[in-house]
Amino acid sequence: MRFPRISRALQWGALLATSAWLAGCVTAPTKDYSAYRAAKPASILVLPPVNDAPEVQASASVLSQATLPLAEAGYYVMPVTLVSETFRQNGLEIAGDIHEVPTPKLKEIFGADAALYIRVTKYGTTYQVIQSATVVSVEARLVDLRTGEQLWDGRASASNQEGGNNSGGGLIGMLVTALVNQIINSATDAAHPMAGVATNRMLAVGTPNGLLYGPRSPQYGKN
């Protein structure tokens, strides 16, 4: 009399297993690159990043490490010093205000094909019970300055705790180590190298959902 119940349980088990297998087969949606490919940007204007983190150096840290990956990807990047001085002479020194400048005006002033709008959402070292973690998170949009259309967007994070940090000395030892590390990291801006890692991850080319190669790269048009 119990066989029907067993059979029903087996059916439910098979259904759940099939559902789990199908869920594992579902791939993450890929970006639509049609507008990006049609625009064919060759030059990029990197705007000063908007900083949502409390550390005032976050914007400059990320900006200083954003141009190299773009240049290596095959794009001409407008010189950061020239861009900053141009904005300053026009009374624009706050990143948020610069991001509000209409795209036709940016095109008129700099002549670049596209602009990269970066935002820093996390930057710095925080104390987390038994460890101190230095984390940087960034996000960006690539916008066609000729049309104002968004061509691409991306985000990435980096932390000095990514590989794990097992230390001896028991709980008290870990608490002391975490506190000391936080003081050292905050005093030396340990987030700066993490900003480089996060920025390079976000602006990587040849990766799923990453940037496309620029016309100066031998790989142009192959991704």
UniProtKB/TrEMBL annotation:
This is DUF799 domain-containing protein. Pfam families: GNA1162-like (PF05643). Keywords: Signal. It comes from Comamonas terrigena. The keyword RNA-binding does not apply. InterPro entries: GNA1162-like. Residues 1-23 form the signal peptide.
